[in-house]
Amino acid sequence: MASRATELRIALSAFGLLAVLFVAFPQIDLWASGLFYRGDGQWVFGREDLILAIPYRGLPRLGQGLLVVLLILLVLGLFKRFNGLRAKRALFGFLLAGAVAGPILLVDNVLKEHSGRTRPVNTTVFGGPLQFTPAFIPADQCQQNCSFVSGHVATAAFIMAFGWLGAPAVRRRWLIASIVFATYMAFVRMSPGGHFLSDCIFGWFATYFGLWATEWLFRRLGWLPSADKHQA
Fold first, then answer.
1. Reported pTM
2. What is the mean pLDDT of each run of 10 residues along the chain (232 residues)?
């Protein structure tokens, strides 16, 4: 991509088009989930099957561990004796704030708590008692930890942060890696009926835009230097 501004415009356009697509044609979600549904309430995999249980249970622990490590590095960077860490305090702070802003605050505490969208496994379409609702449409089929959006996918997408402030080629590689990892986690969550396709797609976008907001704030506060012209 020629610049980060171009990248952002492409991301915003993709987000808008996909949002309109899933609202206008909600059957896309039902079709995608149907690929993993065997009938009679059975899915291709159960959440506790080993192939899914390890990433399902392991990713949140990995994310929590990363938060602890970043916090420790940030605190150590306050002391002069750790000069190497001291020089990277802004980076550690950015990563920590980005993780909190996207996967934790935006996803877990806003979207998942207020969307009201129940998971595929709970809908009448797939043998459950509750009604299916399209993405972005307020619903009353879930009270907490709802389907929209996927926290696992948002967490997997966070690996883009490690190249976020790097040169364009580095940033591109980490963005691609985040899409690949997020796609894998989408399979992990969709195959037992835990999430719809739109939950997974917009989980990635939640982390992406959360990092943009974090970077904007850090630069406004002077905690990060002004972006290079070739990245503007």
1. 0.94
2. 85 98 98 96 89 95 97 94 91 97 96 96 97 97 96 98 95 97 98 98 98 97 72 43
Q: Burial of 105 by CB count in 10 Å (0-12 exposed, 13-18 middle, 19+ buried)? A: middle
Q: Which two tokens stand for residue 210?
A: 């959360």
CA dihedral 56→58→59→65, nearest 10 degrees, is: 160
> What DSSP assignment string belongs to the chain?
---HHHHHHHHHHHHHHHHHHHHH-THHHHHHHHTTEEETTEESS-TTSHHHHHHHHHHHHHHHHHHHHHHHHHHHTTSTT-HHHHTTHHHHHHHHHHHIIIIIIIIIIIIHHHS-PPPGGGBGGGT-SB----TTS--SS-SSS-SSS-HHHHHHHGGGGGGTTS-HHHHHHHHHHHHHHHHHHHHHHHTTTS--HHHHHHHHHHHHHHHHHHHHHHHHTTSSPPPPGGG-
Compute the distance between CA of residue 94 and CA of residue 217 in angstroms, rounded to an integer: 10
